[in-house]
Structures are given as C-alpha cells and as structure tokens.
Amino acid sequence: MFVCLCHGVSDKTIRKLVVEEGITDIRGLKKCTALGSQCGKCVRPAKEIINEFAKDLFKQAS
C-alpha cells in the first residue's frame, strides 16, 4: 500500500528502512525518502507504521 502518494513511498519501503537502516522516527525516514515533503498527509500514517513495526520487531528480538 502506498503511504505517500506524492512520492510513491510504500509501507513495504518503510518497513525495509526500519530493518535495514534502523529508522525509528519520521526524521530518519525523511532523510532516506521524500516522504512528507509535499502535502504532508502521509506523515501520521507513516509514523504509525514505524511505531507498530518497530514494536513488533523488538518483541521478536527479546
């Protein structure tokens, strides 16, 4: 599913960046993608994806 329609950033891309780059917040995501730089409607859903995925990832690790 596309989270950022303006720049074509998908939920899969966000999850991949969380795992591979250790992204844990929107600031880190913006450094790797153009997410949130145009209309900004994607920032809240992207933040939710990062938080949920990171929480699940850390549960598996412990």
UniProtKB/TrEMBL annotation:
Q: Does the keyword Electron transport apply?
A: yes
Keywords, alphabetical: 2Fe-2S, Electron transport, Iron, Iron-sulfur, Metal-binding, Transport
Q: A single Pfam family, by name?
A: Fer2_BFD
Q: Decide whether keyword Endoplasmic reticulum is in the record.
A: no
Q: Which residues form the BFD-like [2Fe-2S]-binding domain?
A: 3-52
Q: Which cofactor does it need?
A: [2Fe-2S] cluster
PANTHER family given in the database record:
BACTERIOFERRITIN-ASSOCIATED FERREDOXIN
Could you say which protein family the record assigns here?
Belongs to the Bfd family.
Q: What is this protein called?
A: Bacterioferritin-associated ferredoxin
Q: Which organism is it from?
A: Vibrio gallaecicus
